[in-house]
Amino acid sequence: MPYSWHYRRFLVECPMSSSITATKRTEFGRRANAAFRKAGQIPAVIMRSGQESEHILLNTVEADHLLQSKTHTCTITVDSQERMVLIRDADRNCLNDSLVHIDFLEVHPDKDVVVEVPLRPITLNCPGIKAGGLLEQMVRKIKIRCPVQQIPEALNADLQGVGIDETVYASDLTLPENVTLLTPGRTALMSVLKTRAMKKAEAAAGK
């Protein structure tokens, strides 16, 4: 059964990976968390299928850089043991945006994962936009299943040949090898719409 992963925070780009060192967490509670933050550390947890979750501490600066790198997979070293993980969730302080906690999911190279990757429109050869149309993107992420080592950084939606009042659907995407689309094919991803000026001009011409 593939792992499921969602991280809050297009032809296909190469997956990215990184590494970080952690220490085991042995103290819990509000006072402990305050002490961790003062020492430049944040708590995190590695969720493991069929096993107890592992509570760890990360260097705050390194963890922030890890999130900003837009990596999918990451190797965490805990007491000389390496674990391949996916970043599942990251919590930040709503007032100052400081990093509060990270959830990781342990994965294995020989298993597929279910992930959501960003969707990026490629508008260079879009006749609708060249004619003055307005791009409306309804979907920002696409759900796929693929091997851990082949997670694309993002998927591209090529708008070549898309005119005004036309729509690109999930089924129109070109996927790389070993990647399966899980977002329903009938899902409308983006459309090229008429601008207000176009609509007014059409209305005036029709009078």
Would you summarize the structure shown here?
This protein has helices at 30-38, 60-68, 127-130, 196-206, and strands at 3-4, 17-24, 41-47, 54-59, 73-78, 81-92, 99-106, 112-122, 134-137, 141-147, 155-158, 166-169, 180-181, 188-193.
Question: What would the keywords be for this entry?
Answer:
207 residues; alpha/beta; Ribosomal Protein L25, Chain P; 6-stranded mixed beta barrel; elongated
What can you see in these coordinates?
- This protein has 207 residues and is an alpha/beta fold.
- It has 2 domains: 3-108, Ribosomal Protein L25, Chain P, CATH 2.40.240.10; 113-206, Ribosomal protein L25, C-terminal domain (RNA Polymerase Alpha Subunit, Chain A, domain 2).
- 16% of the residues lie in helices and 42% in strands.
- A 6-stranded mixed β-barrel has the order 2-4-3-7-6-5.
- The longest helix is centred in the C-terminal third of the chain and has 11 residues, at 196-206.
- The relative contact order is 0.18.
The rough form would be described as elongated
Mean pLDDT: 84
According to DSSP, the number of beta strands is 14
Structural classification:
alpha/beta
Uncertain regions spanning at least 5 consecutive residues: 1-16
The biggest beta sheet is recorded as:
6 strands, mixed, barrel
Assembly of the depicted chains: single chain
Please name the CATH architecture of the largest domain: Beta Barrel
CATH class of the largest domain: Mainly Beta
Produce the secondary structure layout.
Layout: E1 3-4, E2 17-24, H1 30-38, E3 41-47, E4 54-59, H2 60-68, E5 73-78, E6 81-92, E7 99-106, E8 112-122, H3 127-130, E9 134-137, E10 141-147, E11 155-158, E12 166-169, E13 180-181, E14 188-193, H4 196-206
Parallel strand pairs: 1-8, 2-5, 3-7, 8-11
Antiparallel strand pairs: 2-4, 3-4, 5-6, 6-7, 8-10, 9-14, 10-13, 12-14
